[in-house]
Amino acid sequence: MYPDIVSVKVLAHYVVELTFADGTKGAVDLSARIGDGRGVFAPHKDPAFFAKVRVDPEAGTIVWPNDTDLDPDVLYEAAHGLHTLTDDSETESSP
Prior knowledge:
This protein is α+β, with helices and mostly antiparallel strands. The protein has helices spanning 31-34, 47-50, 72-79; strands spanning 5-12, 15-20, 25-29, 54-56, 61-63. A 3-stranded antiparallel beta sheet has the order 1-2-3, covered by helices on one side. The chain is globular.
């Protein structure tokens, strides 16, 4: 288990900069995973909706107003070049 996400900043549509509890930062392009705009990710096609991303401190990950979130460990790996997000990556957190 990697450190929790403690802050998020939108850099561009589908691109976020994440800061982790260990003090490290990294930019992650989420377009391959949520850019298809299907299912729960349909609202994310709207840049204004995407920009409403925030950190859920209890879950230690990022979340949007429709309660979609992404697996913080996969995001940590992507932010640190340990994992490449693709459309078949397991990035959704389990409830």
